Each structure stands twice: as C-alpha cells, then as structure tokens.
Amino acid sequence: MITYYRKDATILLYPHESCSRSSFGFKYLSGAGLPIRLINIGWDRVTSPAYRWHGERRGGGYAVFQYTLAGRGMLRDGETYYALTKDTGFLTVVPGDHEYYLPEDAGEWEFLYVVIHGIDALNHCKEMIRQMGPVLNFREHPEPVAALSRLYRAIYEDPQLDKFTISARLYEWMMGLHRLAEGRGIVRATEELPGPIRAAVKLMKSSYRYDLSIDDMASSAGLTKYHFCRQFHKKTGLTPSQYLRKVRVEQAAWLLRHTDKTVQTIAAECGFEYANYFIKVFRTLVGVTPNDYRSGKKVDPVSFLRVEP
C-alpha cells in the first residue's frame, strides 16, 4: 500500500486507487496451460439489487474472490448468511451452493474482485475455505488485498502484461492467504515483530547455548509468562520453546556446514546437554541426522538453513 502523511492523520491507500474503476477479462488459446490463470479482475461499484450471482447457474471450474471496499454485500453459503462489510472478502469455488448479491437495503457495494482457474487455483482456494471458511477479515492483515490491488494497477497500466507475470502475482496473492490461514496474522520478519517479542528473540539468538527458561524469555520481553507465551505464539506461529529449538538447530546446521567440530561439541555449543537428544531434535526438524546433513546425504547441506513452522 501507499502511505500518505498529513498533520492530523496517516492515510493508507491501496495501489489500485490511483486508477479508475474498470475490469479486464482473459481468454487462453493454450488449453489447460498454467496451473493458476486469471479469468477476470476488476474494480466495480453496484447499486441495483439485480446484482446477484448464483454458484449453480454460471458454469464452473473456477474460483472467485471479492473484497469489499465500501458499502455492503451479502453471501449465502449453503444455509449460512454473511454480511460483507468493509475490510472483509469472500472466497468461493464455482459451481457450489452459494450466491452473493447486493441486499435491497444496502444502497451500494464497491469491491475489488478476481476470478481464477487452473488446478492450483482450485486446490489452493478449496484449502483456504476449509481452513478459514468462505469469509475473511483483512482489517488487521491487508497484505493479500494489497497484492491483488498491485496486480489490478499493473494490468490497468499495461493490459498486455505477460501471462506468466500475472500468474506469478496470483501466487503472491495466494501465499498471502496461506500466511493468514496458517497464523491469522503471523509476522515472519524479526524486524516486524512487536518490541517485547523482538527482545525475546534477540535473547534466544544471543544466548541459545545457555539453559534459557520461559521465565527468562518473558522477563526479557517485560511480560507475564502467560501473556508472553500467548503473544509469542500468535506472532511467530511457534511456542517460545519451539522457537528456541529452531534457533539452536539453525545454528547447529551452520556449524555442521562450516566447521569440523564433532557432533558432540556442536550439540553442547548449541544448548543441547545430550548429543543423543540433539540428534533426535535435528532429525525431527531437518529430516536427516547431523552427520547425514554434513555429508550431503539425502539432503543438500546448504550454507544457511531456515527452519519454518
């Protein structure tokens, strides 16, 4: 998003807002082609209750995502009804027992939408719906919408944009949804973490070789133990103990790759009291034993290893 500053407020604008409302459709001559392809993308505003789409009366084999910018829409999914207000979006696969429409008392509904198809498109969307349901709230996590907004602006500025570039942008948007589904707002980059959580991570990375307790970590964060554990998991997707284990294994992997130290020595330097336990933890997180990782058996011994939840 674009950030504008003025004396009394900070205004966040999505990239598409520098354009005008329009829509773009795509047809492909290459059959199945790419595993995720764009059919339609648009920015629209409707004011008539005649606007209504039924999921069993419009063909099929594609997915629809629609994000409310202003006004209000409605989604019926089976026997459940959802109000689609500002900052919410719905995701659905066609055909299906659903319909979305402008309620008679709503006045208007302004939205950004995308229609996609392809094997990956359908599989990813079905998994998102399974994990989070058909309606998502992006008020606190706008990045997936920002990715879609960037794509709209890119196509608006260049309607001949390469289809591979478009598919890559769709994957960016889809991974944003996966990130939301996995942690409902997990922040991955250390510099983006809230100060208290960042302080605990800094302690882990500087003192991983020592016997750190949850109390030590909570104290560095300036939080109660309960609140610290709850906030840490919410922001990283891992418990503090799991994150410390991750830091230790990542450091051990670096030592295995860049030094000739024994497994026993590396275990001790990385905070594992017993080598056998270190081997067990390493194999659980990396998939191979430390010796196999070092020798390149079954897995490439990369220069730096990241362990993700």
TrEMBL record:
Listed name of the protein: HTH-type transcriptional activator RhaR
Keyword Magnesium applies: no
Cited PANTHER family: HTH-TYPE TRANSCRIPTIONAL ACTIVATOR RHAS (PTHR46796:SF13), HTH-TYPE TRANSCRIPTIONAL ACTIVATOR RHAS-RELATED (PTHR46796)
Keywords per UniProt: DNA-binding, Transcription, Transcription regulation
Superkingdom of this protein's organism: Bacteria
Native species: Paenibacillus solanacearum
UniProt GO MF annotations: DNA-binding transcription factor activity; sequence-specific DNA binding
Entry-linked Pfam families: AraC_binding, HTH_18
InterPro entries: AraC-bd, AraC_XylS_family_regulators, HTH_AraC, HTH_AraC-typ_CS
HTH araC/xylS-type domain location: 198-296
